[in-house]
Structure formats: structure tokens, C-alpha cells
Design a protein that fits this description.
By secondary structure, the chain is an alpha+beta fold. The protein contains six helices and nine strands. It folds into two domains: 2-65, 434 Repressor (Amino-terminal Domain); 101-230, Umud Fragment, subunit A, CATH 2.10.109. It has helices at 2-15, 19-26, 30-38, 46-56, 60-65, 107-115; strands at 101-105, 127-130, 140-143, 163-167, 177-181, 189-196, 199-203, 213-216, 221-230. The two termini are 23 Å apart.
Length: 233
């Protein structure tokens, strides 16, 4: 990780940015950033690497492997050399701009979030993750647990381990996927919101899930509407 430490110190230097002041903007704690800048044997998480790469407008690979002191990001050569093979065709394109960091919560924390829409302290979250879609200020994310929302061969479908982004400021309409807190249940649950014959219910997308439909009353709280998901490799 010597290359990472060298590149980070160099990039902060050419930006003339105080690392501790930039830590909040990057979404990395000050102690973590300090260790990355001063210690060689530090293995940051993938999320931390992506935040740093995005902040400096470089790739994660460049941050870890390249000598950026030779070709700073703003000066890296981009023109093709005569006689060089043509650039390959890629079947991917740039993703959406990251529009902010949101807290990754446990299902119990999400249930508490439903009850008290208070400011969430940075250290209370399991992690802060970048959200690629427009969202309200109270947006949070959860890791999908269980297979009740797995719908094989049909979209939408959610596998255990998928990360879903939930916006509490969106109004739930029939068909929306929502996170809800049921009466006398400390943890939040993830289901599809449904209305039929004037009754409200939560529906599991998995056709084999039992019970697939769960009626809810006025004591249930819709914590927010799912606005997107991220699938970890």
C-alpha cells in the first residue's frame, strides 16, 4: 500500500487541500484518512477506495498501482500515438453522478429511524455509501435479508446481500417497494406495498413465500420508498 500512501499525499498536495478538512466531503473518517496518509500497511475498504478515487477524479486502479506523481490526473496524456493500436471498444459507459452519501443501517436502526426522524450521527451508521440517484435528505440504505423479495426470472427481484436505497420523503403508491415498521416489531421489513378493496397490505415478491400477503393497519409505518439498489460482486 506504499503506492496508495504516496499517491494520496501527492494528490492532496497538488490540490492544496487539508486532508482533515476534506474528510467529511470525501465520506471517510479523519482517523482512517490519517492512517492512509501515514501508514503503509493499511488496507482500506472498497467503499473507501471508491470515495477517494471519485474525490480526486482518478480510477481505483490508478490510485493503487500508478505513480501519479509522473502523470497527475489533470495532465495525464490522452491523445493516441501514431502507430498505436486503436482504442478498444467498451460495452460500458460512465455511471450516474454520485449525489451524496447515505447511512447504511441495520433493520432495527431503520425501524427506529421510522419513529424518530432525527439527524443521524455519522458514527452511528455501519457505513456511509454513495447514492447514484436523486434523493431526499433523510435517505438511508439497508442490506436485503432473506428471500421474500427474490423473484426468479422476473424484475424487480432482490437477492440477499443486495443494498437498497430508501427515501422517506417519497409517498408510497401501490406497487412501490417499501420499507415498513409493523406494530410491536422493532425491526423494519422490506416488501411491496399493495392496496386492494380499500385494504392496505405488504406483498412478498417471492411467489413461494408464505404468507405472501400481510394486511397492515394504521399502526404500521411506511418508513420510505425504495429508489434503487446496488448489487455487490
Amino acid at each position: 500500500m506504499d503506492k496508495l500512501r504516496s499517491n494520496l499525499n501527492f494528490l492532496f498536495g497538488i490540490r492544496q487541500t487539508n486532508p482533515h478538512a476534506a474528510a467529511t466531503e470525501i465520506g471517510v473518517s479523519q482517523p482512517t484518512l490519517h492512517r492512509l496518509l501515514t501508514q503503509a500497511k493499511v488496507r482500506p475498504s472498497a467503499a473507501t477506495l471508491h470515495r477517494l478515487a471519485s474525490f480526486f477524479d482518478v480510477t481505483v486502479d490508478a490510485l493503487l498501482s500508478d505513480d501519479l506523481t509522473e502523470y497527475p490526473p489533470a495532465q495525464a496524456p490522452r491523445q493516441q500515438v501514431v502507430g498505436e493500436a486503436p482504442a478498444p471498444h467498451y460495452n460500458v459507459r460512465s455511471g450516474p453522478d454520485i449525489t451524496g452519501l447515505v447511512p447504511l443501517l441495520s433493520s432495527v436502526q431503520a425501524g427506529e429511524w421510522c419513529e424518530v426522524a432525527a439527524a443521524f450521527e455519522r458514527e452511528d451508521a455501519q457505513e456511509w455509501l454513495p447514492c447514484p440517484v436523486r434523493h431526499g435528505p433523510r435517505t438511508f440504505c439497508l442490506v436485503v435479508e432473506g428471500e421474500s423479495m427474490k423473484n426468479p426470472g422476473i424484475k424487480p427481484s432482490y437477492e440477499p446481500g443486495d443494498i437498497i436505497f430508501i427515501d422517506p420523503d417519497k409517498v408510497a403508491n401501490p406497487g412501490d417497494r417499501v420499507v415498513a415498521r409493523l406494530e410491536n416489531q422493532p425491526a423494519a421489513t422490506f416488501k411491496q406495498y399493495w392496496e386492494e378493496d380499500g385494504k392496505r397490505m405488504l406483498k412478498a415478491l417471492n411467489p413461494d413465500w408464505n404468507p405472501r400477503y400481510s394486511p397492515i393497519n394504521d399502526d404500521a409505518t411506511i418508513c420510505g420508498v425504495v429508489i434503487g439498489k446496488w448489487v455487490p460482486e
